[in-house]
Amino acid sequence: MAWLEAVPNSGSESRRYRLKNPVTLEPVGDFEAASEHEVRAAVEYARKVQPDWAGLGFEARGRFLQRAVQQLLERQDEFVATIVAETGKPTVEAFASEIVTSCDVLTWYAKRAHRILADRTLPVHLVKNKKLRIAYRPLGVVGIITPWNFPFVLSLNPTAQALMAGNAVILKPSEITAFSGQLLQELFDAAGLPEGVFQVVTGDGETGRALCEAGVDKISFTGSVATGRKIGEACGRNLIPCTLELGGKDPMIVCADADLERAANGAVFGAFANSGQVCISTERVYVVDEVADEFTRRVVEKTATLRQGTGGEADVGSMITPTQLEIVERHVDDAVARGARVLAGGRRNPDYEGFFYEPTVLADVTHEMQVMTDETFGPVLPIMRVRDVAEAVERANATRYGLNASVWTRDRRAGAELAKSIEAGAVVVNDCMVTYGVTEAPFGGRKDSGVGQVNGEIGLRSYCHAQSILVDRFGGKSEASWYPHTEKKLSRMKRMVRWVWGTPLGRLLS
Ligand code: NAD
Predict the structure, then answer these.
(1) Rg (CA), the chain
(2) 102, 109 in Cβ contact below 8 A?
């Protein structure tokens, strides 16, 4: 049974889809994919209303976002129910990852944008007769395209930043979680946002493609590497900026002096939270030889205590799509065929009809196995024994991904130093996956894991153009570099160059 199926749309040319619940396989609802024409119309409308939105200023915009928080608090159970119906997450997980983080990001940017994006005056080191002011101007209309694994917060977080920076936003949520995406429209409408400032266009990849071509001023994309490349190409052709937050294959390095109880708990949570469908899931473990047996024993023991299911008492939910479940099956089967040992799980959960895959621990894995090289995006924890930390770092870096990583050691200072040798956008010492939850932390991948960064001050500023405003300080009829060019000017310039970069005092001042 197809779980996202195209349904006939009589009398209309638009594409219509029916979504099903990944746990019960019951229909969740139907939605229509916005056409190219509808996407363009949304962008045009947004462009009309954006200047007034920007003109409101930070305080007024912040009040709208704070109102959205109040709406979210009032309707949290209803929102969580929609997210759970589409994703199969356990209720606690949905609440913690989608609602708690959303309240935080809305509030953080609402309260701080005025300071982070305030005009700045910078001293000019050489051209002393000019005054430099930097003004963070909104880009205009921002297109946001998002995935299905955290369908609410991954849409809301970039939206909050783009709106606070004074932009209008068109959101294209994943077709797999279209109704969670539509919750954002309900939220901002209820918060009283002026019409057209925030619009959701539901649809598939074709709708997303149309958004990239519809004349927006930036695309903020979160999703797979393959789609990220297409979006990067489209933005390059259209000469608009984009941030690409893509996939990962996050390594975990367990040093000999690690607190093994904490590391084992962290490994189990890092690998199985959201059924492993987190871009910063722990996807591979490198544990040094002398503690490998004890670490692995604890991981297997803890995995056995996990409760798979739904509702408030379940730890690990279903997977969101059957396609993703098939990738997980393929990776585990490939590993087993090449000699990996299954220490836990290793199969679909036979107790459920929906897309449940049992939390799986693998040992004796090698880098010839897909499970160690390609993003699995499922509840699988492959553990590899290594000689020492140097080998762990070498193997951690032997990947085309570079999103996130974790290091586990009692020596926190050494851990922070070790972090610098890992080619990843972010590294966590003695914890995992917290990077996205720390709003101040710039977040973004290296290598194939992405381009640009979101979150924190850097992320907020990326929704603006830093406009340099240079003001002449003293006037006068002309400048030394203006016309006419003369030999006299040339020799004066040569003397100046020799003095500024050729004398100790000049070098000091330059
Ligand atoms: P996906 O790339 O298949 O889809 C993401 C979005 O792009 C969807 O809304 C989809 O409709 C749209 N899309 C598809 N084709 C398009 C096109 N040609 N032009 C424009 N838009 C198009 O990704 P997914 O399967 O929804 O998400 C899973 C992936 O996302 C994983 O690889 C995961 O690691 C990654 N991810 C990354 C982060 C991060 O912050 N780095 C966070 C979450 C998920």
Answers:
(1) 26
(2) no
Catalytic residues: 245, 279
CA of 221 to the centre of ligand 1 (A): 7
249 touches ligand 1 (CB under 6 Å): no
Give, as one character, the DSSP assignment of residue 454: B
CATH class of 33-246+456-465: alpha beta
Query: Cα(149) to centroid of ligand 1, in Å?
Result: 9
Taking only the tens place, the pLDDT of each residue in 266-320 is 999 999 999 999 999 999 999 999 999 999 999 999 999 999 999 999 999 999 9
Yes or no: say if 38 and 201 are a contact pair by the CB < 8 Å rule: yes
Q: Are 443 and 453 in contact (CB under 8 A)?
A: yes
At 134-179, the pLDDT tens digits run 999 999 999 999 999 999 999 999 999 999 999 999 999 999 999 9
In this structure, what token pair is assigned to residue 332? Answer: 């585990």
203 CB within 6 A, ligand 1: no
Tell me, using a 6 A CB cutoff, whether residue 281 lines ligand 1.
no
Asked if 372 and 365 count as a contact pair (C-beta separation under 8 A), the reply is: yes
- The pLDDT tens digits for 96-111 are 999 999 999 999 999 9
pLDDT of residue 9: 81
Pick from 204, 222, 225, 237 the residue to mutate for probing ligand 1's pocket: most ligand atoms within 8 Å of its CB. 222
Q: Which backbone phi and psi does 257 adopt, to 5 degrees?
A: -95, 15
| Angle, vertex CA 367, rays to CA 365 and CA 373, nearest 5 | 105
> What's the CA dihedral at 125, 131, 134, 140 to 10 degrees?
-140
CA-to-CA dists, residue 346 to 356, 376, 382, angstroms: 11, 13, 11
Class for the domain spanning 250-438 = alpha beta
Domain with CATH 3.40.605.10 in the chain: 33-246+456-465
Question: In angstroms, what is the span from residue 417 Cα to ligand 1's centroid?
Answer: 33
Q: Closest ligand 1 atom, CA of 225?
A: 32
Which is nearest to 162 in space by CA: 145, 183, 186?
Answer: 145
Residue located nearest, by CA, to atom 14 of ligand 1: 205
Ligand 1 in contact with 212 (CB < 6 A)?
yes
The CA distance from 331 to 118, in Å, is: 49
- Provide CATH 3.40.309.10 ranges for the chain: 250-438
| Whole-number Å distance between alpha carbons of 408 and 259 | 8
Choose the residue to mutate in 31, 149, 325 for probing ligand 1, maximizing ligand atoms within 8 Å of C-beta: 149
Q: Is 393 in the pocket of ligand 1 (CB under 6 A)?
A: no
Cα–chain center distance at 405? 15
Dist. CA 244 → ligand 1 center (Å): 10
Spell out the residues 6+ positions from residue 144 whose beta carbon is closer than 8 angstroms to its own: 155, 158, 159, 162, 169, 170, 171, 172, 219, 220, 221
